[in-house]
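Email to the structure team, subject: Protein Churchill model.

Hi all, the expression group asked for a predicted structure before they design truncation constructs. Nothing fancy, just the tokens so they can compare against earlier work. One-line instruction: predict Protein Churchill, return tokens.
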Amino acid sequence: MCGGCVGTEYPERGTTCLEGGSFLLNFVGCAQCGRRDLVLLSNRETGVQGGEEIVTYDHLCRSCHHLIAHHEYTFSVVDDYQEYTMLCLLCGRAEDSISILPDDPRQMTPLF
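Reply from the structure team: attached below.
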């Protein structure tokens, strides 16, 4: 992974968890060849480990195939919530939790 290719290493992305794609606003250009072109996705793997779905892939420079970053996305169901995480030098770090119930108990207002 290459910190010279990105503007900010592991930027905070809030709840934006990407299962695919790239955060191109953070890509400043390839540190190896100097070009700022589209980013390729390579070596995509999907698997389930301990009840958690894990998607990994590499971001590569389109021109010289230099490794920019390794991307990891996870999805799991914990109690009544879908849990998402993302960790990537280019795309950043993020977490999200969404209720699988029609009404999210965390969003309910007390009646009293």
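The chain has a mean pLDDT of 90. The first strand starts at residue 39 and ends at 49. Ping us if the truncation boundaries need rechecking.
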